[in-house]
Amino acid sequence: MKYVIWVAIIFVGLWWIRQQRSGSNSPLNKKNKGSNVMLPCAHCGLHIPETEAVFGQHLANGNPAPYCSPQHLQQHEGRA
Ligand SMILES: [Zn+2]
């Protein structure tokens, strides 16, 4: 039984090292790190990650206004 536990630990360790290595070099990860920005919902002010924000047609500082949810987009901008 101890043998199985050690194999599991080594397997997880190798997987973790792989994650660390591929994570720092892959362009996808860089993109995620670069876009890890919190934006305030234009309707309620709640801060959400840029990747999860819903963008409306109104402009905020020259960019599409971010919303925390499609509901707030509709409530704030009316029916499109
Ligand atoms: Zn909101």
Considering the chains and any ligands shown, give keywords for the structure:
alpha+beta, 2 domains, two-stranded antiparallel ribbon, 3 helices
Overall mean pLDDT score? 84
Low-confidence parts, pLDDT < 50 over ≥5 residues?
none
Q: Cα-atom Rg, whole angstroms?
A: 21 Å
Share of β-strand residues: 15-25%
Ligands, deduplicated: zinc ion
Helix tally equals: 3
Secondary-structure element order, N to C: HHEEEEH
Distance between the termini: 63 Å
Helical content stands at: 40-55%
Silhouette: elongated
Record field, number of beta strands: 4
Structural class: alpha+beta
Strand order of the largest sheet: 1-2
Number of domains: 2
Describe the main β-sheet briefly.
Answer: 2 strands, antiparallel
What does this structure look like?
By secondary structure, the chain is an alpha+beta fold. The chain has helices spanning 2-25, 27-34, 70-77; strands at residues 38-40, 47-49, 54-60, 63-67. The protein folds into 2 domains: 1-34; 37-80, no CATH class. The protein is 50% helix and 22% strand. A two-stranded antiparallel sheet has the order 1-2. A two-stranded antiparallel sheet has the order 3-4. Bound molecules: zinc ion. Zinc ion binds at residues 41, 43-44, 46, 67-69, 72.
Write the topology of this structure.
Layout: H1 2-25, H2 27-34, E1 38-40, E2 47-49, E3 54-60, E4 63-67, H3 70-77
The structure holds zinc ion.
Précis, in short:
The chain is an alpha+beta fold. It has two domains: 1-34; 37-80, no CATH class. Helices cover 50% and strands 22% of the residues.
